[in-house]
Design a protein that fits this description.
The chain is α/β, with parallel strands linked by helices. The chain is built from eleven helices and eleven strands. α10 packs across α11. It starts with a helix and ends with a helix. The structure holds magnesium ion.
Length: 252
């Protein structure tokens, strides 16, 4: 009898563990800390897919004439992206020699990578009009490429997040700033929080609150092993990191 009870307890524990989703890894700006790669390059996307992580994050912003380019900083090659025409930017090179990618070229490469999610960060823009324009452009292009199920959106701009929810109510959309409680995120129709890990250390209760509301929890940018371990222990759903291989070893 005692053996049966023990066996039953073991089975229950296993089921509970299986039901708790494991923390997964997202490569920050792609997997760029590796040979031949560069931040936000298509090579970084391909290398993240090769590393078999959950997702590859990248940043997009709008040029003065409405093209969507993949870049983190507001400037590149001495030009401010928001003030430049695409023609002035289109031949600029990244550190690995690759031409500055556009969202179009990124998604085209992404179509051949069915095993990875694309974590598309729309940068805040100066005007609401620009933010609406880039949100629409991204949702439409993702739709054209048939990648709705593989793309998840993130932004520091709550306006962008709200636009995305309106444009595609089925999309996964998470807010990045780290200053809004999960219940308010849920009320706005977003699907997750993607917060600096320090915000989660200050509000550890947000992880459980978010999960109870059906929201996902992602922490950025987690590069130290001790923080990775701590956040895995806090049961966050995702860790965004510049060291995806190291993080993958820890979550196993
Ligand atoms: Mg980013």
């Amino acid at each position: 009898m005692k053996t049966n009870t023990f066996f039953f307890a073991c089975v229950c524990t296993l089921f509970t563990l299986a039901a708790q989703a494991q923390t997964q890894v997202i490569a920050h700006r792609g997997f760029w800390k590796t040979e031949g790669s560069a931040q936000n390059s298509i090579a970084a996307l391909l290398k993240a897919a090769e590393a078999k992580v959950y997702g590859s994050e990248f940043d997009v912003q709008l040029t003065a004439d409405g093209a969507v380019v993949v870049n983190h900083d507001a400037t590149i090659g001495g030009l401010t992206i928001a003030d430049a025409k695409f023609d002035q930017l289109k031949d600029l090179k990244l550190k690995n020699g690759e031409t500055l990618p556009t969202l179009d070229s990124y998604l085209r490469a992404g179509q051949k990578l069915p095993g990875i999610r694309f974590i598309l960060e729309i940068k805040p823009h100066k005007t609401k009009e620009q933010e609406e324009r880039i949100s629409k452009a991204c949702v439409n292009m993702v739709r054209e490429y048939g990648l709705e199920k593989q793309v998840e959106y993130i932004s520091f701009s709550m306006n962008v997040c709200e636009q995305l929810v309106k444009l595609n109510p089925d999309a996964k959309v998470a807010y990045l700033e780290g200053d809004v409680a999960p219940k308010d995120i849920k009320a706005k129709g977003l699907t997750g929080i993607d917060y600096p890990y320090n915000a989660l250390y200050q509000h550890p209760e947000w992880v459980k609150e978010a999960h109870e509301l059906g929201l996902t929890v992602n922490a950025w940018t987690v590069n130290k092993e001790e923080d990775m371990k701590k956040l895995i222990g806090m049961k966050v759903d995702f860790i965004t990191t510049d060291h995806p291989l190291e993080a993958k070893k820890l979550v196993k």
